[in-house]
Design brief:
Strands 4, 5, 6, 7, 8, 9, 10 and 11 form an eight-stranded mixed sheet that branches. Strands 1-3-2 form a three-stranded antiparallel sheet. By secondary structure, it is of the alpha/beta class. It is elongated and about 75 Å long. A hairpin with a 5-residue loop joins strand 10 and strand 11. InterPro entries: ArsR-like_HTH (IPR011991), HTH_ArsR_DNA-bd_dom (IPR001845), Methyltransf_11 (IPR013216), Methyltransf_Superfamily (IPR050508), SAM-dependent_MTases_sf (IPR029063), WH-like_DNA-bd_sf (IPR036388), WH_DNA-bd_sf (IPR036390).
């Protein structure tokens, strides 16, 4: 009985419940927990030690990192942890935010672990990593945009800054945001070249952009939404910073059944169908245009949308659907 009481006491703390909920999604190291939960390493190390001592977490050292995960379901600690987690509300706002952050961390882990990232560095992007026709996609994107100057442009999930480099000759100013410091370091090196000084990047969460309303003439999300735990919320933020009369373009994979691609790069969604994407865009107050397809090993689609000159409050569901 004493062991059970110790395990229940270990669970009975908000941060430790959040840790268990994350561990149910896979293994994380201490630094990843600090990034997801926004707490200090010493504090989280204490919580992890208490959960481990209570048998609610397994720890495994791998090189310089220690990884934490739920014990097997057929163990006392594993079964108790799962019984507790089953009673957590799925719609809890804190847990939903943790899931979004965890999806980003897992995607970043997969991206940095890829052989092509290690080999190519600043020349890496996901389309090339998937052998997709990056040049054709860039041409299709430019074809969707007006020939006149594009004004202020925001690139959400900028990665290595390649899109800003492509758009630079046609923009008054460009800003790229990404939640990965590794990617931003590569993007800053790229944008230090001559002729690109009007473009910049900064660290930001696509669900909580530190940017004012209606600040941009063009917003682009390229190869971003299939990583998003909550695509509707990400698009709502993109719509918020888009000025009336401005345009947004989503560039992403069409719906597919390539589960090995999702596993290898930690995708949350197997691409998107036109109907699903148009519903998402309308749900955040945007008017979808005609999609453009770029064939390849996986089809890439470009979904343009505009924001009407009359401001209206978006109506969208913050709970992601279970199908693309």
């Amino acid at each position: 009985m004493e062991h059970l009481l110790a395990a229940l006491r270990a669970c009975a703390e908000p941060t430790r419940l959040r840790i268990l909920a994350l561990a149910a999604r896979g293994s994380f190291c201490v630094m990843e927990f600090t990034e997801i939960l926004g707490q200090s390493q010493p504090r989280l190390s204490r919580h992890l030690r208490l959960l481990g001592d209570a048998g609610l977490l397994d720890r495994e050292r791998e090189g310089a990192n220690v990884w934490f995960a739920l014990p097997p379901a057929d163990t006392q600690g594993g079964s108790l942890a799962r019984a507790v987690l089953e009673r957590l509300p799925e719609d809890d706002a804190t847990l939903a935010a943790d899931r979004r952050q965890a999806a980003r961390v897992l995607a970043e882990r997969a991206r940095e672990a890829s052989e092509s990232f290690r080999r190519k560095g600043a020349d890496w992007d996901e389309m090339r990593a998937l052998d997709l026709p990056a040049a054709a996609v860039e041409t299709a994107l430019l074809g969707l945009l007006p020939e006149a100057e594009l004004g202020r442009v925001l690139d959400i999930g900028t990665g290595t800054g390649r899109l800003l480099e492509v758009l630079a000759p046609r923009v008054a100013s460009g800003l790229g945001v990404d939640a990965s410091r590794a990617m931003l370091a590569l993007a800053r090196a790229r944008l230090a070249r001559p002729g690109l000084t009007h473009c910049a990047v900064r660290l930001a969460d696509m669900y909580r952009l530190p940017l004012p309303d209606a600040a941009f003439d063009l917003v682009v999300l390229q190869m971003v939404l299939h990583y998003a735990e909550d695509p509707a919320s990400a698009l709502a933020e993109a719509a918020r910073v888009l000025r009336p009369g401005g345009r947004l373009v989503v560039v992403d994979l069409a719906g597919h059944a390539r589960t090995e691609v999702m596993t290898r790069l930690a995708h949350r969604w197997p691409g998107f169908g036109d109907a699903r994407m148009c519903d998402l865009l309308r749900g955040v107050g945007l008017d979808p245009g005609t999609p453009v397809a770029v064939p390849g090993p996986l089809e890439v689609r470009l979904w343009p949308a505009g924001r009407s000159t009359a401001l209206s409050a978006p109506t969208y569901d913050l709970v992601p659907e279970t199908t693309p």
